[in-house]
Structures are given as structure tokens and as C-alpha cells.
Design a protein that fits this description.
By secondary structure, the protein is mostly helical. It has 14 helices and eight strands. The chain has three domains: 75 residues, no CATH class; 83 residues; 178 residues, Intergrase catalytic core (hpI Integrase, Chain A, Orthogonal Bundle), CATH 1.10.443. Helix 3 runs antiparallel to helix 4, helix 3 crosses helix 6 and helix 4 packs across helix 6.
Amino acid sequence: MCYIGAEYLLQRDGIFYYNRRIPDDVSAQYASKRVVFSLKTRSRSAALKSAASVTGQLEKQWLLFRSEKWPIPVLTTLTTLGTVNNLCGVTLSEALDVYVRLKGGEKGTKFIRHATRSTSYAIEAVGDHDLTSYDGKARGVFRDALLDRGLVSSSAKRVFASVRAMVNFVICEYGLKATNPFLHVFFPELNDTKKRKPFSSNEIRLLHDKCRSTDDDVRHLVALISDTGMRLSEATGLKVSDIKVEGPTPYVCIRPNPIRRLKTKQSERQVPLIGASLWAAKRVLATSSGDYAFPRYVKNGTCLANSASATLNKWIRSNISNDLVVHSTRHKFRDRLREVGCPPEIIDSLGGWSRNSIGESYGDGYSLKAKHEWLSKIILE
């Protein structure tokens, strides 16, 4: 059997793609010279059927572009007969496939998971249709569905922004004559964001005592975070070689590595080790094997910070307070430094928080000795 469009099939890593050059006489309608996208199948028979369908859709689209030079009655007849429809040929799920394939490699697994989850919310709310088929009501339906799921407005905005960015990317990548249906949505100011409760000083002391008494890798991770202010992903992704306990000022070196990136440029820093964090660092060096400090949370070249978060939060809620999570130690870390009068610039340097002043980028920053002097004032034993 001879399938229309079979000559436009391309197979890469077992997956079939549609790959067709755009004719010169309609190329002005596109930003790129080819139509290329995944058919999301390894089956040749399924790919042949999809290629035939896509070829037919493209021919209709190009007929429309060419018909702009024809008399109005001809164009009207084509439209009335239903010949011109489904002109984009890219659904939300197909857009996600393109987005992840082209941008996922540089962004990492967290980006892919967020884009995939956000798109699944959109498809559940407005269906998986051609991008040109959504009308102005779709954005409102999607927004309301996100809020109805119980997402706070800030989380709903992030999900919506992810879908909007994905659709924008695919429209530009394919040179589609389509308007992003997820632009210009209104989100009411609900003031529904819950403020995270910080630890009290007594709760920090209790946390440290329990970490020392249990003395395993999970508790080493908690204690290390508590007295350094590190983000959980920064700590779980540490290499053993990042921990320096020899010398006059023990410290941890927070820097990018193959299994995790850092949140901002300012996140790359050196933080002195004191109190519980120094104890934890020494225990990590004494018990860890391999390149990474917490191998439990390293798998297939990826830092499993979300898995660590679930484990640590469950333990903290069961042993310290049901209102606290591991990230609350970072909030308390900043409060502890404020309480002893630590300059804001040093606080930001220790926590890897960004500052807006241009002058902050000048010089080499604060020395380990200067940072250690302030950290030594917040030890809770």
C-alpha cells in the first residue's frame, strides 16, 4: 500500500518524526524552512497514517495561503466546504513533546517535570486540541480550574506561565500563524499564600539533639542545612570533595556539579561550618562512600531533592512540630543572624540570596574568617 506523505518520515532513536520542506511560494508565512515534529510512535504503520493526515492538513493550509491571491468567492467556497480547518496541526500534548525535546536537555529534569505537570493541568481543563482551536474563553477556564484544584494563586500563576511559555516557544519554532490562547489572563489578588513558620531557638536545639542521637545520613543532612542555611537541593547535591574540615576555618563549598545546578549566580559560595553543621560534615566524611555526600539522594545522574524533602519533612513533623518543614531552618538561619546584628550583606552572602546593588558584584566578597565570626555567634547548643 502506498501512503501519502511516507517520504516525509524520519526515524531518530526509534521514534518517527514528520520532516518536510516548506514550499517557496508559502515560505513567507513561516519563521523556519521546514515543518519538523515528533509523531510520538515507534510503529511504522502508525507513523505512515499520521504522516498522511499531516500531509493532508498542510496541503489544505498551503492552499489557503495560495488562495489569498484568488478572488474572494473562491476563498469563501473553500471555507464553507470545510476544506480550511485545523490549520495549525499541533496539539497541546504535541507542543509539550517539542518543548521538552528541544529545551529539556539544557534545563534538566525539574524543568521537564514542571512543564509536563502544567500541561497535564491544561489538557484536563480545556482538552488536548489544535492550538488554533482554543477561543478567548480557554484562558479563563484554565485559570479557574487551577484555583479550583486548591492551588494558591502564586502556584497557579507559575503553572499558567509554564504553559504560556511552552505555546509561545512552539509557535515561534514552527513559524505558526497562531495567537497564543493563554496570553493576557487575569488572576485575582487572593492573598492566599501561607507564610512558612520558622523554627524557634528551642526547636532548633531539639532538632540538633535528635540528629546527634539518631546519627544517620538523613539526620546529617538536616543538621548540615540547619547551621549553614543551605537550600535542600544544594546540600543533597554536595560532593564529598566540597566539604573541607581541615584548616583553621572548616567550610562547605557550594558550586554547580553534574547532578544539580544552583538557583542563582549568588548561590555559588563558601559557608563556614559551625555547631551542628560541623558535626554533620565530619560524620559525612567518616561514613560516606563514593563521590557524593548523600548517595541515597543521587540516582541516574540526578539529585533527588524532592525525595529528600518528603523524607525530612515527615521526620520533622513527627519529631519537632507539625507546622514545620525543612526549609523552615533556612528562614530561622536568617533570623538568627539578624538577631545578633549581622550586616545584611554578610547574611545574603552566607545564604546565597541575591542583592540588587550593582556594587555588590565588585570585589571578592567577604572572607571565610569574617563570615565565621558572625556564624559563631548563632550556635545553639
